[in-house]
Amino acid sequence: MLNATPDIQFKTQLRELSNAPLNECIQCGTCSVVCSLAPDDRPFPRKEMIWAGWGMKDQLIGNPDVWLCHQCGDCSSYCPRDIKPADVLSAVRQLSYIHYSRPRFLGKLLSSPKGLPIAILIPVVFIITILSIAGTLHIPDGPVNYSAFFPHSWLNSTFATITLIIFGMTIGGLVTFWKDMKNKFPDEPKQKGFTAGFFAVISELITHRNFGECEAQKPRKVAHLLVFYGFILLFLMTCYAIYAVVAEIYPLSFLNPFKIAGNLASLMLLSGLILMIISRVKDKEKFGNSNYSDWLFLISMLILTISGIGVEMGRFLNWDLAYHIYFLHLCTVWFLIIYLPYIKFGHILYRTTAMIFARTIGRK
Ligand code: SF4
Ligand code: SF4
Fold it and tell me: For the chain: N or C, fewer Cβ within 10 A?
C-alpha cells in the first residue's frame, strides 16, 4: 500500500541537492514518455516527481526505478517546466546511499563541503598513526624505496583490514536495500533467479548497453568505458603487485607486462576522467547540474590517478618529493576506501543491486 506520509526534511534535502522547483511539476508525463530506459509498466520519472514534490521519502528510498536511470538528461531537456527530473533522481540516489550506509555520521560528513576537512583528516591521521607505530615516519635515506617508508607488511595488513570492514558494512546496507525493494514489489512474480539477473546485469555493465539507449548519453559512453575498464585493470594489477610483494619479486621492472598493463590502466582512467569532467562542465545544460558528490568523486579519482603516476615516476627518477607524493596517494586511496559507501563508489554498487533486482522481477 502507498505510504503517503510526507517528510519535509527529506523534501528540503532533495530541493537543496537538486536545485529543482519540486512543486512546479504539472504531471504532464513528458519526462516518462521521452525516457528510453523507463519500463512500459509504471514508468519513471513522472511518478517519482510527484513523490518528490510531496516529500514521500518512503516511496523514493528503496525504489529500484530511481537507479535504472542513467542520468542522460533527455527528460530534463524536454520538461516544459524546466524542473530537471534527471537532477531530482540523482539527488534521490545520493540520499539513498547515505540512508543505507553505516555509520551515518560519515555520510553526513561527506554530504557537504563543510565536513570535508575532517573527512580528509581521518585517513591522514590514520596513516600517520600506523607509520608512527611502525617507526618509519620519516623520509628514508638513499634511493627511493617506498617499502622503507611504509613497510609492505604494515601496508597490506592494515589496508586489507580496513577494506574488509568497509565492505562488510557496505554489504549490510545493500542487504537492507534489497529487502526494501522487495517490500515495494511484494506481488511481483519472480521471473529470474538472482544468479540469472546478476549475469544479465554484468553483461549490461561490460557493454554499457544502456548508455547507447539514451540518445543524449551516447557521447559519455566512451568516457565511462575508459574509467570502467581502466579501474578494473588497475585493480587487477594492484592485486598482482600485492602477490609480487609476497613472492618477493617486487618491485617490477618498467618493461614487465604487468607493469605495462598497470600503466595502460592509469592512462585509460586519466583520459576517461578528463573526458567526464569536460562533458560535465561543457554540457551542463544538457546533462544537468553536477552536485558536490559528483565532483568529490571525480576529483578524488583524478588525484588518485595522477598521484599514482607520480609515485611510479618518483621511484624511477628518484625524485626528492617521491615520498610526499606517495603519502598523498595513500591518503587518497584510503579516503576512497573508507568513504566507499557514501560517495559515487557506493553508488555503483547500489545501482548494480537495483538493476539485478529489476531483472529478477522482469522490470526492464
Ligand atoms: S516533464 Fe516536467 S512537468 Fe512534466 S511530469 Fe515530468 S517533471 Fe513534471
Ligand atoms: S535522465 Fe535519462 S534515464 Fe534518467 S529518467 Fe531522465 S530520460 Fe530517463
Answer: N
Residue 14 amino acid letter: L
Which residues does 294 contact at the CB level (< 8 Å), separation at least 6?
Answer: 90, 280, 344
Pocket of ligand 1, candidates 18, 54, 83: which has the most ligand atoms within 8 Å of its Cβ, to mutate? Answer: 83
Ligand 2 lined by 72 (C-beta under 6 Å): yes
Question: Any idea where the domains of the chain sit in the sequence?
Answer: 8-100, 104-360
- State the residue for C-alpha cell 611504509: 150
Cα 327 from Cα 1, distance rounded (Å): 53
Q: What is the pTM of this model?
A: 0.84
Q: Give the tens place of pLDDT for each residue, 251-294.
A: 788 889 999 999 999 999 999 999 999 988 887 666 566 778 88
CATH number of the 8-100 domain:
1.10.1060.10
Q: Which residues of the chain have pLDDT under 50?
A: none
Q: Is 331 left (phi over 0), alpha (psi -120 to 50) or beta?
A: alpha
Residues in the chain: 364
